[in-house]
Amino acid sequence: MSSTTRSIFKYTNEKYNKSIKEHKDILNIISPYIELLIINQQSDDISINFFDKNCYLLKQWGSKEHLNELDYSNLVEGVCWQNKFMGINSTGEVFSNSEDSIINNNKYIEISVPLNDKKDNLLAILTIILINKKESFKYHESLLHIKSSLEKHLRSKNKIEYSEFLKQKVQKREKLFMAVMENFNMALMIVSYPSLKIQYINTPSINLIDGVTGVDIKRDDLYGVSLYDIEKSQRYDVINHTIDNIREKNFETLSKSEFHFQNGTKKIMKFSSIPIYDEDENIKSVVITGMDITEESEFLNTKNKFFSLISHELRSPANIIISASQLLLTDKYKKLLNGNVISHIEMLKINSYRLLRLINNFLDIEKFQAGFLELDMKNYDIVHCTEELTNSIIDLTDSKGIKVIFDTEFEEKIVALDIDKYERIILNLLSNATKFTPEGGQILVNLYENQEHLVVSVKDTGVGIKKENIPKIFNKFNSIKYNLPRVDSGTGLGLNLVKNLMEKMNGVIKVDSILGKGTEFKLFFPNIKLEDEELEYVKRTQKEIEQITNIEFSDIK
Q: Over pLDDT 90: what percentage of the chain?
């Protein structure tokens, strides 16, 4: 949902820190439960959010990738939404009704429970947002367990009894944690920070070390040993990468490594590191996890080979048909054909472009999701590139009675881009703008700077998008039907690909739209260029530019 559809209020730093301080005890109680829940969840598609009684978000847990998925709703720490919006999300339902709420929309499930004091007054709200709808019951039960544990703590009247009770609960929680970790099908190690001394290591980790080294390692021999003390010659690359990432506090980076066992087998493992903070927000320990992804890697390798093969096998015939069609439409052959045959050849060429566009979009989306979509970043003048792309569609838009305007606040701007992917993004947005703008309308392409970002805006005066459809437009295979003469339902792949390509280049895409008045897509690119790299120029002939444009505009009637 677009952020323009509601008012957003944000705590000042002073108010945010004050609220954090007021809820410090509650956060200390529930954080270990939540960290254990995060570690044990099977996928990255989960976030847990803690709101104060004024419905301001104070703290988030979850993967960076999934939190980015929620970026369109401005779900960030310190932010609240006005009450009239509260009725259409579970946090707002709890805020209004003081009872559990589960809301299931077509993108994710949102589960919220109120956290109350001993007098049953609302203290805060705890919310889980997840993609896997099959696990909603389990996570609802988890929230209720955390709620129950917190409220039992708060109802303890005697401070001494409370302290002893808390100590016993911590010990029970630690025993539960150890029991879970021992039976967890994942290598896990907890190290102190910054010394990186091993505090805990589970059985799957011991088995991994034994299998690789052929030595019967005793658990007690590893406790207190620092990762720094392991001989470099005996380290796997993953240990070096993990040490470097922890030293640089780069906890989002995943490391992969291939382990060869003494029995002749091999495993491919994916490692990640999760920081654990003390009450002063200082890192006290780091949880290092390793997951066996051998089968997944083999599947992805097979999938990559399949995509390479299918890419060639599908694109080649389409390109041959296009080339043959273009040849038949030259003056040399055109005069030999009657008008009816020529119209069929034109139709053949246009639909070959459409087929090629569909193939390109589908394969690139699948490559992105499989992690095989690579970047070729170089320094380009984005002003020149964007203006050239905009000019390439003017003949087409003129024929539709649509005016195209290019505007920029600077004559030249050098930034790092993957030019092929940038062209796909811009032409896709221009194609959409042309498709949904009626005769007499206009399309404005604008470049400007906004703090640390370079912004490219594509704005039209077209039909606009219904408010309830805005959150869906970037979903794969989502297509919105319009009763317009040159618009069909499409495949719903184009904007999904645009979003993926923007994420790949560390950019963000946002959309504002008013039904009946038009739509504006804003692309936020990092305003950086590659050091010690020369300026590159787009080396495309006019014919090549026309070919690219024809592919992206092939579904416009």
A: 14
Contact 225, 324 (CB under 8 A): no
Q: Tell me the C-alpha distance between 189 and 203, whole Å.
A: 10
Structure confidence by residue, pLDDT tens digits, 282-322: 899 998 888 888 887 787 777 767 766 776 677 777 777 77
pLDDT digits (tens, 9 = 90+) for 366-394: 666 666 677 889 999 999 999 988 988 88
Tokens 């008013």 map to which residue?
A: 514
Rounded Cα gap, residues 498 and 509, in angstroms: 8
For residue 235, give the DSSP letter: -
Q: Which long-range contacts (CB under 8 A, 24 or more apart) does 526-533 make?
A: 526/415, 526/416, 526/452, 526/453, 526/454, 527/415, 527/449, 527/452, 527/453, 527/454, 528/415, 528/416, 529/379, 529/414, 529/415, 529/416, 530/377, 530/378, 530/379, 530/416, 533/378, 533/379, 533/416
Closest CA to 78 of 30, 13, 165, 148: 13
What count of Cα atoms within 13 Å lies in the side-chain half-sphere of residue 128? 27
| Pairwise CA distance, residues 182 & 428, whole Å | 50
Residue (of 208, 205, 243) closest to 226 by Cα position = 243
**Distance separating alpha carbons of residues 36 and 38, to the nearest angstrom:** 5
Question: Greatest CA span in the chain, whole angstroms?
Answer: 100
The label of the residue with tokens 């799957």 reads 204
Task: Give me the count of residues in the chain.
Answer: 557
Strands lying side by side in the sheet with 453-460:
403-408, 442-450, 453-460, 518-526, 508-514
Interior angle at CA 94, CA 38 and CA 59, nearest 5? 40
Tokens 């499989």, located at residue = 370
HEC-encoded secondary structure of 303-316: HHHHHHHHHHHHHH
**Alpha carbon separation from 418 to 374, 377, 484, 504, 526 (Å, rounded):** 9, 5, 34, 10, 13
Cα 28–chain centre separation: 29
Phi, psi of 305 (to 5 degrees): -65, -40
Tokens matching residue 453? 């970002």
- Region at 78 (left for phi over 0; alpha for psi -120 to 50; beta for the rest): left
Cα-to-chain-centroid distance, residue 313: 31
